[in-house]
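Re: the request from the purification team.
They wanted to know what the chain is likely to look like in 3D before they choose a buffer screen. I agreed to run a prediction and write the result into the notebook, where they can find it.
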Amino acid sequence: MFAPYVALLIAALAWTAVWWVERIRLEHALTQKAAAFERQGYTAHWAGLKIDGWPFRLRVTLTAPQAGDSAGWGLTAPRLEFQAMAWAPNTWVLAAPAGLTVTRPGKGALNVSGQMIRASVGAANTAQPRFSFEGDHLILVPAQGASPAAFSAIGKLELHLQPGPDDQAAFLLRVDEGQLLPQTGLAKLASGKAFGLVWDSRLTKLSAFKGSNWPGALQAWRNAGGSMTVVNAELRLAGLKLKGEGGPFVVDTDGRLSGQLPLKLDTGAGQTLMSALGLLGPVQLTFKDGRAAIGPTPVGAALKIG
């Protein structure tokens, strides 16, 4: 009559042993990987490392982690939490419950806080991992002496990278309820209303995106002929919605997008905006020579990704 209980106890003890072995393996792998990155010129260390989550999860808590590359890009946080199922540690969910700080080369640090800041990495043990980022009610505050970002706040921010066949990848950027700084060109067109963006695109030559730092990887991708084609773009501006698709876009030597995208008004109530832009038909979103324009109207610097 005690056989089922004995079997359950043995199974629990066996699984506990498996969990502890996986915990030790993970701690060793993290330490070794960080050391390897440091030898390559990156910054990758933390003040404290804790792994728990028994019986069914592996939960990693890093205290005061610091990461960065030789070009000056960096990330720090009071605490980062990683979590995966113990029996399938190839999909990880990351969270920054106390916010984080992004260091930008030449622009200084940007403190980011919000109701939720999290990311996930799938197929982590393969050559083509998937990546997603989500942030809710983000507040972006530059550190003392640092340059501000284009946005002071974002209601919801999403980034998704999904590798596909033929060395391609799908890249999606979504911005909802973005509050632009008053001095930006887009803010003048937005007339004080929230800014929104959907940028659903396809990248080529994904395997060429490699390097010891972000600008180096971007340059290698550019040299290999990597490009971006937009399959769906939505720009919500001054209460109106503009939609389009096209490309290709490439990256110039300064790391800024270069190319054109024709945009059309999604509804029929846009004569005022179109007149302000100087056009009554499709309007071109243009990134050229480091500058951005909607039709003939300059709106600031072109999107910089490197």
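For the purification team: Residues 152-306 form one domain.
Please add any questions underneath this entry.
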